[in-house]
Amino acid sequence: MLPPVMKHALLAVLAAGTLTACAEPKRDYSGWGAYGGGPEHLRYSSLTRITPQNVSALRVAWTYDTGADPRSGLMHSTPLLADGRLFVAGPDASIHAIHPETGARIWRYAPPAPGGDNTYFRGAPRGLMYWRDAAGKGRVYGVNGRLVYAVDAASGALIPDFRIDLRQDLGRDPATQDAELGSPGAVYKDLIILGTRMGESLPTSPGHIRAYDARTGALRWTFHTIPHPGEFGYDTWPKDAWQYSGGANAWSGASLDEARGIVFVSTGSAASDFYGADRVGDNLFANSVIALKAETGVRIWHQQITRHDLWDRDLPAPPSLVTVTRNGHRVDAVLQTTKSGHIWLFNRETGEPLFPVDEVKTAVSDVPGEVAAPAQRVPRLPVPFANQQFTITQRTPAATAFVEKQIKGLDPHAAFVPPSRRRQIIYPGFDGGGEWGGSAFDPETERVYVNANEVPWMVRLIEPPAREDLTSASQFYAVFCASCHGKDRRGTGDFPSLVGVGERMSDLTVLDRITHGGNRMPGFAAAMEAVALDALTRYVRIGEDVRLDRSAARAQPFNMRFRNDGWPQLRDDGGYPGSAPPWGTLTAIDLTSGQHVWRIPFGEYPALAAQGQRSTGSENYGGPVVTAGGLVFIGATVLDRKFRAFDKATGALLWETTLPAAGLGTPAVYDANGRQFVVTPAGGPRNAGENRGASYVAFALPAAP
Asked: How far apart are CA 202 and CA 483, in angstroms?
């Protein structure tokens, strides 16, 4: 193997056309040693034992029940294989080591719940992290809300000298912050490099990228995604924004080029999502792909995908590190999927786009205080994997009429039209297009496989009462909570209902969530005084409304004049999406040409399928895996609970089975003792009232007699 410097020099000579390229040694893709399969996030397996010819013989090899209450949290975690063991996360933030061939438990570690309240967990991350020290001893890193912890990989014993509180070292009072780990980071040498998940409206924490010592948890470096004075990008924000603004966080994880020592992150929107009067400017490094030196956190290059985002266009998945053919030469690249349904390809070392990029003029905002970016960028190729134009449903005449009535007078859908006080259609919706499951890349064919949502949502800005004028708990709820949880507390979009929450959570638990936030919810410790927090807690739990003395209310440094009016999806009279199907798709794209190879509906609505409508597609969360054996494996569909295998060459459905709960995560593919296994989480959807689970299901061909 050539040293990195010599290898880069040789590649430069090859690019100049003076030498003939020799085939590089193939990496081992037979295991699943990290989230996304490996540090490059290819979601690819080189195993070939399961093929289009024999996949119909797949059977359940084992099912592992984590033993956790499914209501304790989400479980969308991808298994990890290391030291001959499979490590999985439970919905209660527990870590389990199981036998990869049999699913038998080896050990289980369950951390205490935050604050000692055993009724409340933060839920599992979307994967775990593994590190081995110089002596060969392994550690597995898990997360319990704001805390990252480590256990001994051999015994499952907690390592007491390691602990990371993600609220610390953000330049803010930790008591008022919330920062959680939703997706695994990258492990490089003796560093673990993490992004964070936090609320999406102000007040919320800044989304800085941080590296920690893998042995002790001590902070080693920080990259400010909201630049501080004197740092690159500082002039793309108001001068004091670094002290109060939030978001711009790499909530989806990180990818690593180990040979070059470069970590790649993709970031989300700056807070607040839809109104940016307090963050006038392009807002680097929100909505950006960023290449950093893994050793130090120093920026190498960046590409901002959306300037001054007003549409919640987070970059939803970590970058994939791929190698593609351009003009007859092999080029190491960075692939980024987006909620809008576009794919970006960048040169891995320079950040230059590999396909032409167009500048698109954008509309001027008519909302007071808002200054939209005058232009946005769109890659000319690859062809988008999600529809770009909303078309009304024709499911039935009644369904069409119902949707037409809803959208009468609405602003028509168009890309990059800023939200206004008139309701608009957003398509693809807030959950994509692409989502956190990302894509799967086949290095043999240079094709990428990506699933997408094709569901319309709506957005409108409203002007709530000024904060200083709020005098009751119900008014606080209307301003701070109703946009997500609904005016009637019954939830909106994929945000949960609060009806009956007092029976499920204690005062302490609800107060903690309102104070500090969690998942996509911001914390409000910096937005309201203790008496208001207490009153809002009781209103949320039991509906008790009290009047408050606000004479000593604190002033805020940010502008909260406008907020989004909920997260409603546009649906027809039967509750189905208001757009023409397919409502979910799976697409194969040739990255050499940028053209689609095939595109199919993905997922079903069981009630419609029973009526013979089987090609509607449906919402889906979680990603695909592609194998050298010729298959694409994917769960992801929310409603039908299916796990499927497709022919990667044609998109033909070759096999499917029904899981005990929806497999909303990326499966893992690995070899154990000469047998190929495919393992998927079966944790179910985000909404607590729907079918939830807490198990993992493994599939394999029948064992030889």
From this structure: 13
pLDDT of residue 109: 96
- State the helix-helix crossing angle for 530-542 and 473-480, rounded to 10 degrees: 90
CA distance 355 to 380: 7
Residues forming beta bridges with residue 698, ordered by sequence position:
62, 679
Indicate whether 3 belongs to any domain: no
CA distance 112 to 319: 33
| Contact indicator for 496, 485 with CB cutoff of 8 Å | yes
DSSP state of 25: P
Count Cβ atoms below 10 Å from residue 692 Cβ, excluding itself. 22
Q: Residues near 566 by Cβ (< 8 Å), separated by ≥ 6?
A: 482, 483, 484, 486, 492, 493
Confidence of residue 14 (pLDDT cuts 50, 70, 90): very low
- 473 domain residue, yes or no: yes
Cα separation, 151 vs 261, whole angstroms: 26
- 18 by Cβ neighbours in 10 Å (0-12 / 13-18 / 19+) ranks as exposed
In a domain, 543, yes or no: yes
Chain-centre distance for alpha carbon 402: 33
Nearest one of 364, 354, 292 to 324, comparing CA atoms: 354
Three-state DSSP at 237 gives coil
526 or 245, which is more confident: 245
Beta strands in 267-404 (DSSP E): 288-293, 299-304, 320-326, 329-337, 343-347, 357-361, 375-379
**What is the rounded distance in angstroms from the CA atom of residue 65 to the CA atom of residue 697?**
9
Domain count, the chain: 1
* pLDDT of amino acid 631: 98
In the chain, pLDDT over 70 holds for what percent of residues?
87
Model confidence band, residue 540 (pLDDT cutoffs 50, 70, 90): confident
Measured in degrees and rounded to the nearest 5, phi and psi for residue 116 equal: 75, 10
The pTM assigned to this predicted structure is 0.89
Q: Which domain holds residue 474?
A: 464-560
Q: Of 373-387, 398-412, 602-616, where does mean pLDDT reach its minimum?
A: 398-412
pLDDT tens for each residue of 593-610: 999 999 999 999 999 999
Side-chain-side CA neighbours of residue 111 (13 Å): 30
pLDDT tens column, 86-115? 999 999 889 999 999 999 999 999 987 655
Query: Pick from 565, 557, 527: which is nearest to 279 by CA?
Result: 557
Confirm whether 159 is domain-assigned: no
C-alpha to C-alpha distance for 617 and 119, rounded to whole angstroms = 36
Q: Are 566 and 560 in contact (CB under 8 A)?
A: no
Find residue 448's DSSP bridge partners: 441, 589
Give me the pLDDT at residue 145, please: 78
CATH classification of the domain holding 499: 1.10.760.10
Distance CA 292, CA 330 (A): 23
- The tokens describing 591, both together, are 């990255």
Mean pLDDT rounded to a whole number for the chain: 88
Question: CA–CA separation, 316 vs 308, rounded Å?
Answer: 17
* C-alpha span between 312 and 299 (Å, rounded): 25
Helices (H), 590-704: 606-610
Ranked by mean pLDDT, which of 142-156, 162-176, 208-222 comes out on top? 208-222
Q: Please give the single-letter amino acid code of residue 299.
A: R
Residue type, 427: Y
In 454-583, where do the E strands start and end? Answer: 457-459, 461-462, 563-564
CA distance 440 to 57: 24
**Phi-psi label, residue 617: left if phi above 0, alpha if psi -120 to 50, beta otherwise:** left
Q: What is the pLDDT of residues 241-259, one digit of tens each?
A: 999 999 999 999 999 999 9
